[in-house]
Amino acid sequence: MIIDARTVPQNTVLDSDICIIGGGAAGITLTRELAGTSLQVCLLESGGLEFAPATQNLYAGESTNPHFFPLDVTRLRYFGGSTNHWSGWTRPFQLIEFEKRAHIPYSGWPFGLAELEPYYRRAQVLCEVGPFAYEAKDWTINDQEPLKLNPSRFFTSIFQFSPPTRFGQRYREELAKAQNVRVYLRANVTTLETPPVPNAVSQVRVATLGGPAFQVRSRRYVLAAGGIENVRLLLSSDQVETAGLGNQNDLVGRFFMDHPIFEQSGQILFKQRYPELDYYRLTAVQPNVIVRGILEPATELTKREGLPNFYIGIRPATATDVSEGAASIKALWWRLRKGSFPEDLGKHLGNIISDLDGLASAAYGRIAGSSPTHYATFSSLEPPPNPDSRITLTNERDALGLRRVKLDWRLGPDFEHFFMRAHELLGQELGRVGLGRLRIRPRGSALDPMENYENGHHHMGATRMHPDPKQGVVDSDGRVHGIANLYVAGSSVFPTYGCGTPTLTIVALATRLADHLKAT
What we know:
alpha/beta; 8-stranded mixed beta sheet; 26% helix; globular
């Protein structure tokens, strides 16, 4: 059943066995997995079925990093959550990304890939992608083979692409028909209340914008409100624990991370003139199955070099890859879109004026639809965990009276070295096997990678998972340390972040948590 929370009478107390807070990928997956059981499930979603500016504004907050999109842009607050603008990139975390690595402080999950693999297979179905196969040997793409590199240095792996699945649309009817499920739309949780000894949640308070307020009492509660909102609700629930729920060791909000995305990290100049590289493009290989190859380092290489995991993709170059003037136009547009006026405006204008021939050539090639004459790289690196990258609360309040957040996203002092070394190693391998050379845009150029990366809209880590409460907020089942009936779902529990996209792992963890809740 789907209910508009504005129709609930003021001060009503609703009862359930499990209360799930948030209707995105994690919350909908959990609810769907619990549908049809003997458990009475209540799902509280802040938004309605469509985008609404007043609700979206509840996400607004402060960010200290100019590379981060505004907080009310990087997430969507209506049924289905951010799957409503998900681009569909899908792959599991790699084996090494679960492991404790001596050269990556705070690394390691409480369990490995083998524990999560059966849940990944179930997540594949929910995300509507192909078989659980992400190695190059599993795929033939237009009768082409991947680049022949030394597998002890680099190999080709695969991304699959969801349609993308909009969870709120795809699974709405199932949840509406489930007899044991009630979905409340426009229901904003404002507080998680506890008894004087805060070892359990006793009820949650719910408000609607301009409408009634009510309470939900449940045997168990699951926070699935997103990587920032999970933290905000824990820190805001400070009536008994003044530092916030689960924050006895000052860990709630710490270790926040997002993937820095480099859309233009370098150029590859192939020895063989402009080869066809369909293996590294979006390609439909079966009906409704779309894949794309990427280059990934061997585990031995990253350990030997002291690097986090990373991937580098290949695509036909655009005008901004080959024309410094076009690159300056894009850099100006990027900074203005972020709301900042570039201090180096004169340099960019000089690039544009001095490269009119390059701009004209690039424009003609685009209009004429000519074949690409260069290939470019895009990349993502696994950011090491950083306790100083964190979410805190400000004194500014939203329309519901909740304190807004301040996000201080930090990548760490070694990140530029990691980026440069990753590309150097790939360039060396391309040269060693005689394929070509890789050129990285230098510091100070129009599209200097360190000045033009963006966050990947992947909010992770700020309620991290660890069996030791002095090192994590939740245990290996996702239960908040010290609180018997409160769990957290979603990417905020990731101890490390991988270099790929988080959605498949979010859904896999949610199915695992659903099994745990059913069993207990």
